[in-house]
């Protein structure tokens, strides 16, 4: 085993709030510059560009299919998958649960599927940056039932952070790992939210611009950069471990 560097929270041109420079090829180039071994492209309620990022990467870095799902409670959850089939199955269900609001590019930004060669595949007309009509617990269940891993995103941050929005971890069984914001000191997060004690804490860049990729990351002590090994590292199985990077300076 050795330490691998992972950034599981990267947006692409399919997120209306992200730069149109976040093409698959550019994401891969920036991920390599940042010496990332494992990445996940997590657009809002959409996974399609992950396919093209994976093709552009050719295994370097390893690319997981992902989404940042906005639940009915307006809590955001990262969902990462090893395979395209299950990611796209869930994506289709999410699309059916999205309100039918057109995306006004002048107001929200463009939502563009771009292939590994930089060619536009299509534009998504329905606004993706809205909550789906599914509860937090239902979203987690659907992710895990398909073999994916659910990670509450930037739990300490408004908007969208589970703890910041709800003020607590709801009763029930919850994912073992949570993500904190790129600029939050780990000690401050645990002090503010004792519920985090004993949980695996990850950090991602939440990159919306190319230069933000790899500004924060999580190191995994495991056998290889993969979803299966990520799970074992979160569980500290067989000496595996995770450790978040230092916080980055918050940009105004």
Automatic annotation (TrEMBL):
Matching InterPro entries: PHP_domain, Pol/His_phosphatase_N, Pol/histidinol_Pase-like
Residue ranges occupied by any Polymerase/histidinol phosphatase N-terminal domain in the UniProt entry: 6-73
GO molecular function, a single term: 5'-3' DNA exonuclease activity
UniProt protein name: Polymerase/histidinol phosphatase N-terminal domain-containing protein
Species for this entry: Bipolaricaulis sibiricus
């Amino acid at each position: 085993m050795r330490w691998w560097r992972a950034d599981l929270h990267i947006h692409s041109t399919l997120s209306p709030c992200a730069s149109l420079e976040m093409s698959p090829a550019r994401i891969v180039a920036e991920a390599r510059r940042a010496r990332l071994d494992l990445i996940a492209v997590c657009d809002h309620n959409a996974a399609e560009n992950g396919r093209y990022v994976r093709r552009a990467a050719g295994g370097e870095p390893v690319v997981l299919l992902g989404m940042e799902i906005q639940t009915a409670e307006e809590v955001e959850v990262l969902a990462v998958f090893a395979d395209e089939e299950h990611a796209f199955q869930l994506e289709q269900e999410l699309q059916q649960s999205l309100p039918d609001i057109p995306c006004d590019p002048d107001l929200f930004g463009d939502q563009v599927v771009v292939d590994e060669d930089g060619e536009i595949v299509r534009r998504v007309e329905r606004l993706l940056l809205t909550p789906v009509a599914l509860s937090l617990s239902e979203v987690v269940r659907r992710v895990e039932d398909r073999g994916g891993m659910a990670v509450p995103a930037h739990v300490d941050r408004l908007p969208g952070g589970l703890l910041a929005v709800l003020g607590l971890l709801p009763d029930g069984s919850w994912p073992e790992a949570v993500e904190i914001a790129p600029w939050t000191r780990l000690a401050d997060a645990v002090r503010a939210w004792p519920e985090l004690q004993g949980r695996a804490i990850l950090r991602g860049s939440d990159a919306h611009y190319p230069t933000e990729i790899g500004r924060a990351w999580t190191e995994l002590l495991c056998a290889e950069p993969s979803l299966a090994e990520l799970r074992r590292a979160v569980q500290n199985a067989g000496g595996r471990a995770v450790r978040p990077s230092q916080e980055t300076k918050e940009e105004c």
